[in-house]
Structures are given as structure tokens and as C-alpha cells.
Automatic annotation (TrEMBL):
Lineage: Bacteria, Pseudomonadati, Pseudomonadota, Betaproteobacteria, Nitrosomonadales
Keyword vocabulary terms for this entry: Signal
Descriptive protein name: Spore coat protein U-like protein
Signal sequence bounds: 1-24
UniProt source species: Sulfurisoma sediminicola
Amino acid sequence: MKRLMFAIATAFAAQGMMVPSASAAVGSANFNVTATLNSACTVGAIADLAFPAYTAFTAAVVGSTSALITCTRTLAGVLAEFDTAADATSSALAVTPSGTGVMTNRLQYTLTTVKGAVAGGADATTAIIGGGDTFTYTINGSITANQAGTCGVGSCAGTQTRTLTLNF
């Protein structure tokens, strides 16, 4: 009888029936992480384009300023234009817009732009968020020669606020 009990116990043990198993149940499923990216560009602060003093009826004077642009990486087709407020014009949307304007002292000026090379930003990784592509617009201005302007005293400052708008 002891032999029979031993044989039955050995058979159950061999099949794992005597000692319950300590394994946990495992289940898994895949899922996707998704997001829609809306491309954008930002324009950094643009310093004033400050011309040197202009004396009536003399040669043209020039000045320049620049705008740092940051866009979504690899965004193609970025175009720009200047506003067309009172006494101001702009070319149609272009990679390098141009325009004219008249300051409050009634001096006419022209604007042209030069787009700098694009510096590619870094891709995001698990360690960094990455960065956008950047480029600089150099905005060149010129006050046309031989203008009279308007000034009832010895010298009069003139201004005109302009806006650079990006379209993509």
C-alpha cells in the first residue's frame, strides 16, 4: 500500500498536481501613441531700423535690422510680406519681400530683405525636446536721395511702424 501511495504521489508531483504553481497570469496588448502637429513659425523681436540723420536734398542713406525666424523643422514654403498700412506698400508674398513707406517727417524709404541660410534644429529624442529650424531675415532700408521731407524746425524725427508677416 505504501508503494501504491508513493507511486500515486510521484505521478501527481510529476504532473504538478500536488504543489500549486506560483506563476502569475500575463496579458499584453499593443497601442499607438498619436498626435497631429500643426506647423508654426515665430518671429523674434525686431530691433528698429534706425537710419542715420538725413539732410534734405542730399545722397541716399541706408540702414538695416534683422529678424530671427524659428519654424517647425523641415517646414517648406515659408513666405513673408510687409504690412500695407497708410503710406506703405509691400510686394506680394515672397521668400524675400520688399516694400516702400513714408515716415511721419514725409521721407520716403524702401525696404528689401535677404533670407539667410536655414540652420536645422535637432530632432526630439527621449533625452531632449529638440528645436526648430532657424533663419534670419536681414531687412535693408534706404531713404531715397534728393528728398525735401517735412520739418518746421531744425530737425524732426520721423517714424512709421511696419509689420513683417510670415505665411506658410
